[in-house]
Amino acid sequence: MRHLIDPTDLTVEETERIIALAEEIIADRAAFSEVCKGKKLATLFYEPSTRTRLSFTSAMLELGGQVIGFSDANSSSVSKGETVADTVRVIRCFADIIAMRHYKEGAPLVASQYAGIPVINAGDGSHAHPTQTLTDLLTIKREKGRFDHMTIGFCGDLKFGRTVHSLLKALSRYEGIEAILISPEELRLPDYMLQELRSNSKIRFREVRTMEEVMPELDVLYMTRVQKERFLDEEEFDRVKNSFVLDPSKLVSAKKDMIVLHPLPRVNEITRAVDNDPRAAYFRQVENGKFVRMALIYTLLRWADENKPFERTPVFGADYVVNELECQNRRCISASEDVDRLFVRGDDGVCRCAYCEAKAK
Predict the structure, then answer these.
(1) Which end of the chain offers a freer environment for a tag, N or C, measured as fewer CB atoms within 10 Å?
(2) Which of 3, 40, 92, 101 is catalytic?
(3) For this structure, is 51 an active site residue?
(4) Would you call 3 a catalytic residue per the annotation?
(5) What are the φ and ψ backbone dihedral angles of 41, each rounded to 5 degrees?
(6) Which CATH fold would you assign to the domain 150-283?
(7) 7-129+287-305 falls under which CATH superfamily?
């Protein structure tokens, strides 16, 4: 059974096939209007969402399928204390595929171990957002014509920004990528990701503190929102919330064919005056999200038809260190639910939580 929990669950070739399929759908939407007829998508959203939830819903309807689920966990048995594992074992009786957003890091991985149907991670805490990554890649391909040999600036909240983490992982497999990490000290990319970039990826990267100093170099500027909901300390949020704001004056030195991306929603980090600049691609990016999710749903359902669902649970899809260590991350699903404690041992001997990638203490 194949799932999409992390961007690297798909090989480069599989990723590019899904992107190519999305482009086919864009070119001839009518040809795909009934390919998922009789199939049901369950959208399990434990955290507020507009674009992602409606994008999944629209994607499945345009494929001819149906949608069930919830947009507020308080209206489900979750409010009574039902675990993720039990919820998905119930949902598999009614649906063929699941899209899950959860505020706990690692919840979709838990779901994949118990569901017996494909699970798509629609965002788990500040950890990962692989379908946004596919959206970003499709947008880059349509706007720039390639995935490789470009300079990309990631600006704003790089610490909690799951979209940044996921896109960096995906781009780390391509040649000629330079990532410029633009953030205040409080919101710089987590140390474990910096180490991963140093050790295992093809990306060259550097950290800077202002977008002005690097704007002329950029082929893509990826803006992010400073996310209040990810902060444990409100005073820290207040100190950095206005750190980086993109306005027309900052675009004067940018390349004429640079594009500005943003996973949305925005607050004040891109002014309204930027919206009519042809380089502002973030609303085109939203529409691309629907098409790439159509391609992903269709692909995962086809793969599922080739595999019988498993009967025994949980099912682990990798070699793990099981129940020997504990995760100290309070945002991890293992901190609040009765799940197997899973760790992955890296080449350097360090064990990291399989759910949230926190280093074992």
Answers:
(1) C
(2) 101
(3) yes
(4) no
(5) -105, 130
(6) Rossmann fold (3.40.50)
(7) Aspartate/ornithine carbamoyltransferase (3.40.50.1370)
| Number of other CB atoms surrounding residue 221 within 10 Å | 28
Catalytic residue, chosen from 15, 43, 52, 163, is 52
Whether the bond between 48 and the residue before it is cis, its omega within 30 degrees of 0, is: no
Candidate list 80, 256, 272, 312, residue with the active-site label: 80
Tokens describing residue 159 = 């610490």
Query: Does 312 participate in catalysis according to the annotation?
Result: no
Global pTM? 0.92
Instruction: Give the domain ranges of the chain.
Output: 7-129+287-305, 150-283, 321-353
**What is the longest distance spanned by two Cα atoms in the chain?**
59
Give the mean pLDDT of the chain.
92
Closest CA relative to residue 164, chosen from 193, 186, 121, 199: 193
Using one digit for the tens of pLDDT, what is the confidence trace for 216-252? 999 999 999 876 766 667 887 777 766 688 999 999 9
Which one of 2, 17, 51, 188 is the catalytic residue? Answer: 51
Spatial distance between the Cα atoms of 174 and 137, rounded to a whole number of angstroms: 12
